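Following up on my earlier thread - several people asked me to post the actual chain instead of describing it. Fair enough. Here it is, all 211 residues.
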Amino acid sequence: MKSHEIKAVIEGLLFVSGEEGIDEKQLMDVLQIDRKSLKFYLAEMKDMYQSEQRGIQLVEVAGGYQLTTKQDHAPFFKRLVQSPSSATLSQAALESLAIIAYKQPISRVEIEDIRGVKSERPIRTLNGKGIIKEVGRAEGPGRAILYGTSKLFLEQFGLRSIDELPPLPDNVSEEDVEEEVDLFFTKFQEQFSADPQLVLNEEGEITDDGE
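Reply from S.P.:
Thanks for posting it. Predicted structure:
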């Protein structure tokens, strides 16, 4: 591989490694390069990320490497967390969440087939909030990402496992899918209505202040 390709792969490996990061041995094993070469590419990437035009940086932590945001941008992240919109879920997101909860693992295309509309944005929102997560890849062409609910989802609903979701009627047909969504949505409303900090407003959004 060429130098820029190797750095692109390293960037992808760092991204999928998330907060846990990835150590030198793993990087060398995956890339099949020696430590000297790896150090060279990592040094170049560190320099690249130091540019003011980049919002992330490459850091070495406990013998491993990970991508993090820059401390200089912390005020903006704090503003994002405090933004009222960051604490809301649209009805589209709720519908997508209901489908994922009952049909997991499920791909975006399958969710869109059930809802009848594009669902990329609500799925991205749910994933970003940690309520759902990627749980694998579908077999066949394209190997679409499969989604499932996360531990945070169970915590929010007070469930010990996904098996404790409200039961659905047997032999549910495609025509009954809307009823599935309504059932889950009702349960969702009940759950959050019981929490004074998280209630639904008139637009069907969950807010942290009831407005």
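Residues 192-211 have pLDDT under 50 and may be disordered. That should answer part of your original question.
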